[in-house]
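Model it.
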Amino acid sequence: MQDSLPRVAKHPSMPFSDIVGHEQQIEVLRQAIASARVPNAYLLVGPPNVGKTLVAQEFARAVNCERLPETPRADQVDACGECHNCVRIAQDNHPDLRILRPAVRVDVKPPADEGGGRGQPKARTVSREVYVELPDALIYTEQVERLIQQLSAKPALARRKIVIICSAERMHTDGANKLLKTLEEPPPNTTFVLTTANPSQLLDTIISRCQTIKFHPLSRQDLAGTLGERFPQTDEGHREAAVAMAGGRYGRAEWLVGAPDVLSLRNELLDLVVATAEAPLVESLRLGERLAAMPRRWWETAEAAEAQAGQGSEDERQMRAEALETLGKNSPDRISRIQMNELLDVLQTWFRDLTLLRADSGSQLVLNADRADQLRGLAGSYSPEGLVWASEIIEDVRSDLRSHNANFGLACQVLMVKLIAAARRR
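Modeled.
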């Protein structure tokens, strides 16, 4: 499931022992540290936002924790969270930690009252690199070049320099080739940790020089159980809605528990798709207009929840807000196109659940468990062919919006027409 929220890719720090899931993957890293056989490069492979970067950051803390025993057992390898190295790495403010993220270049103009007065030069447009998870963000060659230059010095404070390259498949070809040369002759006491959801888009020669560790989403049952343990006071239906949207990613589920307005919009979207089961075709225009307005509202609601959660510094949030505002002005429906992926993911889970229940009304694999009774009531009104067609329609719209620059409003209307038709297909 693609997580298309355009957020800063930062994670709260926590020791290995507090991370939910990924026990086997963490054990591999602990064993390497305990045996003093940490390789020069890891490749962490798994779905977007499943926890790869979080684990990579905690690896950086664990391997450099000042309180780590001289010859630790694997179960003793963890970050204390209190020493100088642990604190600064958690803050992304350590000289021996480099994190490279896909960047979006945005020309952000200074406010009108800054410069340009009598006798003063006019303020110039400033190009800023904004680190946000946009689908078209890239890792530019000059970013890789700067990184390689910074690695020439010995570690300043830590035992090992750690370089984390997020979404490494987004490197420009020239940058990837420059990184490959560094991996072939790595600096001493340096470990690269590359993360990717699409290893097939990486150079085979880069993959061959990394130790690969695969990450997997948590099961719905495990995720629901953990949320129940950690948030026992939260309404069960609220938790189930968070689980349905999280796609097996604990961090995402935890964030959603604290973002009730986002979950309310998810319910509004599901009410909209429920209406297509019985709506006449003449209603498709109105339903399409409602759908077309939702991605922007979804984004604004998610951004408000992010601001309330206090992710990043005030300066980072301000820069991000300015950059996204500029992106929105330059391409009015760009945010809607990006955010539409999230809505389409929700719709796919709905038709997946209907397909399961159409075959087995007692299935316990339903993702949208908070709406299980409603799903069971609707499943019989669809034919198997109609459900398959509905899923194909959703993916066609995703492809058209991503690759073919289709008219956004028209695409939403066509989707509603075809979902209404899918309920009648026999």
